[in-house]
Amino acid sequence: MRVIAGKYRHRALRAPRGLEVRPTSDRLRETLFNVLAAGRPEVLAGSVWIDAFAGTGAVGIEALSRGARQVYFLESAKAAAAAIRANLKALGIAQGAEIVEREAAAGLERLEAAGVECGFFFLDPPYRMEAAYHETLERLAKSKLLKTTSVVVAEHDQHFDPGDGFGRLSRYRKLEQGDAVLSFYKLVPGSQ
Predict the structure, then answer these.
(1) Cβ–Cβ under 8 Å, residues 124 and 58
(2) Exposure of 170 by Cβ count < 10 A (0-12 exposed, 13-18 middle, 19+ buried)?
(3) What is the CATH number of domain 26-187?
(4) Of 156, 161, 170, 192, whose CB count within 10 A is highest?
(5) Can you give the pTM of this predicted structure?
């Protein structure tokens, strides 16, 4: 596993041992960022990200490598949070990254109370935790964490579909790659 592009390109990332963490593959991460930037890398420059169920932190670190200003890594598993810290340290990333070591609901509540607004929200719970998709997307639909221009991306297994809409959030694209699927959501224009 490595950083695909940007400042930390080709640098290796570590993952904790065991099956609890399933890092987003290099290929899928590359596809994700190609879709988000759509040939305009400046879209990512200065952006704020929330990498929920962050695991190794690969997606958030990729965002930092490509010019994100701030990434909040939301991860409750101690071993995974330690892997994120080790990866940030190995890359020399001292600013623009914050690890929020809490369960998703508590972490989102903390970020919202701090007035965080993100341009990109990446959600990748362990595939077996299907309820976590619904709970997080429903919470986001009511949250002040998202702006009208924010993009929410959920990575999930091809045999599970989190759904087309959650209140103000509506899926606008679904991209399959192997066994993994990326579902892209935005706030419905004019919604409250």
Answers:
(1) no
(2) middle
(3) 3.40.50.150
(4) 156
(5) 0.93
